[in-house]
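Retro notes
What went well: the complex prediction finally ran end to end.
Inputs used:
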Amino acid sequence: MSVRHLFPLFRRELASYFLGPMAFLVLLAFQGIAWFNFWDLLERLDRNRATVSGLRDPLNFYLSGSVPFWIALMIALPALTMRLISEENRSGTIETLLTVPITEGEVVISKWLAGVVMYIVMLMPFIIYLPFLYVQGKFHFDIGPFISLSIGMLSLGLMFVAIGLFFSSLTRNQIVAAIWTFLTFFLFIFLTEAAYGYALAKQERWAELMQFLSVLNQVHAFAIGQLDLRILSVHFSICALMLFLTIKVVEWRRA
Amino acid sequence: MIEVADLSKQYGTIQAVKKLTFHVDRGEIVGFLGPNGAGKTTTMRMLTTYLTPTSGRASISGHDVLDEALEVRKKVGYLPENVPLYPEMRVREYLSYRAQLKDVPRSKRRSAIDYVLERCGLADFDRRILGQLSKGYRQRVGLAESLIHDPDLLILDEPTAGLDPIQVREVRALIRELGGKHTILLSTHIMTEVEAVCGRVILIAAGRIAIDDRIERIQTENAIVLQARGPENAMKKALESAPKVRRVTTLNDSGGVATFEIQTEDGVDLREELAHRLVHNGWALRQLDLRRSSLEERFVRAVADASVRVDQPESGAA
């Protein structure tokens, strides 16, 4: 593994995002949601402050508690990761990639990094409004929860992109990769939450496990400033496992 | 340069390549010939380390394709079939990207790109978008790309497929020129291409080597075709008894007229001797020809032989 190769691979991958329409569409959609959520947040903050929960917990109201945000994420992220490897499989460029002196690891890691950067860029619209709220609106929300939420969203992104990359390596059809990725995200985001609700109602003992695994719960905790290292280590472990499996899949395709 | 021993590749139950053994010396231009599905591309993919062999060994410049794959890849320039390219990139941008992946030092990159652009007739096309290039120009970009790190060995999978006749000429001329500096293994199913470009031909059919010989030797192999009126058996015996005759095959025998094909040792011309033998026995000679067997005939014959062998199960093989 050498950085010398990672950089050109990474740069090509990132450039190809912006040479097609997908990155711009996704950015536009997220910009729309960010704008809407921000406007909604302002409305609430403007009302009787004592009765509005958005005041106590503005980040959860703005981002992590927003249903449109999660739905958009579940659709947009598979759309961004689906072509990473499947497109190389389909067009045959994978053959040109695996016959130059670079390793499968370098190929996979550089694609993953490009996906992660796209994920961060995708979340940027949510960040650009906050300075206005802080400086112009004189609403001095805590910086601590903002930082813990950023770290949490980043570690979540590392994992989600690795999952998308893995499904992309399995196929030569982008749509198939996107559907599998979407289903997995749906499992992580909504099914765990639903299972948690069910287990809680039935007083089941595995309710705590579901609470721990539920991405919505995790991000909610990050947004109120609880930086739980156990959750970060779960994200990193799944991410590492997915990257390892992706490298193996790319290697197996040569057999 | 290339050493291949008992190389085999199995896809599930299909054996695509069966125990190939050959070797190629430095500076040779070798044509890899065979019908579609003979295993040419699979063999080339194994040599470029893209596919791993099921069994057997292959090495390039002494580096094994399995154990030292990265070393092999540094030595090899590869033009895959159909030339996969990234449609959104520009010609120079793509070559620069590939040069970086192939470890061309930064100081030499620019001159290396300019050189291959010039060499492949792309000098005025360096700003073009790859997805908008015609087939011929894609092929040139692929060829330029395979040359960019100045490899010892060029592996070209159907380098002239889909080109117009003028481009075919240009590419062949380019390959011949490159042959002085690089060892080249190219695959094709166009016979004239092999005759025009290669010094040696390896013909594979049904996953096996059917012919492996120098072009001149294949071209000088003569056959005499002879037609005469008389009893087929007796005439055949008389022909076979002549000195330096290697093989007599009956091509046709009907209405008392038989046609034979006679192969002679070292391609000696025995027409007069054979005619004399027949006429001496009182058989009327109707036709006498010296046929220079073309590569195409050899090709067709070898492929037919190979498929016959496939139909008959090998002894000892399950």
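What we learned: The mean pLDDT of chain A is 88.
What to try next: split runs per interface for comparison.
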